[in-house]
Amino acid sequence: MSPEGERFGVYDHRLTIIGLLLIAFSVALGGYRAITKYQVPGPFSHDNAGFCDFHNGLYFPTAALIEGISPYGEVYATTYPVDRQVPFFSPGFFAMHAPLAILPLRIAEVAYFVLIVLTALAIGFFVASMVGRYRRWDLILMITGLLLLSRGGQSTLYVGYFTMEIVLATLLAIHWAPRRPWLAALALVIVSAKPTYILPLGFLMLARGNYKALAIGAVLSLVAAGIPFAWLAAHASEGNLITGVWEIAEDIRATQDVHMLVADEMPVNTWTRIDLPAIVAKWMQADPSQAKLVGIMFFVLALPMVVLFRRNKAGVDDGAAGLTGLLILSAFLASIYHQSYDAMVLIAPLVGILIGSPAIWRRAEGHKRWKLLTIAGLIVLPLYSFYSTRILLGRADPAPVVLRVLTSVSGVSVAVLMLLACWMAWKQLGQDSENTDRTIPAVST
């Protein structure tokens, strides 16, 4: 596929067929697992986790919100058929999914499964747009198929987590921020659903100079979260809003403690974490406090933020699929709590490398092609990290050291990717301005 392909109506029938087959296979496999290993709402079991995250992390929390019951409190955990109260996700995000929660559970499950696939297709469309292939349906379908076939894609189809929505919003926030700050701000409202997303992304975008998008996004996010939060507070204290706010704040603190005490969430035990602090903690056999983890986040983000700040001052920005996107996304993943499914955000720079667009990826060809191969390989490792899944590790029963190595590969890959992106981005600043990508416009939609 030539990077100079026309904007409309140019496609490869073979790639279209392959993309459709990948989508069909991925959806069938994920759907089969979700049905055959379906989780009857209630206590969690690794052996039967089909759509458990939809139940525990979206449907019932949203249903509770509608009823004025805080999904962060013990009353919720004892009233609804869930494993435990939810960690702090923005109540505004739950409110956005209210239409699903008023449906019968089975219908809502089918609807959300379809929504996952459609969101993956939307990611394919926008990523194709980011590399200049606005209506290349062969590429859109290929990206969608590869995304659904990834570890994160299969996990999302199986457990029904809302990862696809956050991944799409993250990519759009980065993509739209320079030229369409209002649209980027709307995307940031969705990103703000998870503190571990909005915190690192917010600081990286700040260093990039996306002030307007961040300011508008902060206001909209506060409004989106504040209204349902006030609703919960009013119900929690029988109309005394101030007392209710303090009660829910205490619930949130308690639920975070409960969440972090779950054995699978601890860095020393997890096989899914890909952030640098978790990998270091795993090898040190330590369990750092949340305060320490936030401090480590700033330490990890320091170098990428300096590089982004310098690039912003120089007017260098090649978008979410370029070196800028690679730098932001790798630092975002490496800095603080992220799971294997979060690696799906790397699909944008991966496609950029494979297509050779934006131009930074074409200029690295020839004697520098090893850079592209290295970067692509480092992206593929966490994207398709089936080598460290619970099923494989359980059957292989590796020695403890081998287990640590296998469950650290993805995190190490992301950290190396971040350092390599910093080096390339800094080096690019010293090149002649004629050979430097300038800020690219956001895609028309």
Automatic annotation (TrEMBL):
Transmembrane intervals: 15-35, 110-128, 157-176, 182-206, 213-234, 291-308, 320-337, 343-361, 373-393, 405-426
GO molecular-function terms, A-Z: hexosyltransferase activity
Q: Where in the cell is it found?
A: Cell membrane
Q: How does it sit in the membrane?
A: Multi-pass membrane protein
Where does this protein come from, organism-wise?
Answer: Stieleria marina
Q: According to its record, what are the GO cellular component terms?
A: plasma membrane
Q: What is this protein called?
A: Polyprenol-phosphate-mannose-dependent alpha-(1-2)-phosphatidylinositol mannoside mannosyltransferase
Q: Which family does it belong to?
A: Belongs to the glycosyltransferase 87 family.
Q: Which UniProt keywords are given for this protein, alphabetically ordered?
A: Cell membrane, Membrane, Transferase, Transmembrane, Transmembrane helix
| Primary localization | membrane
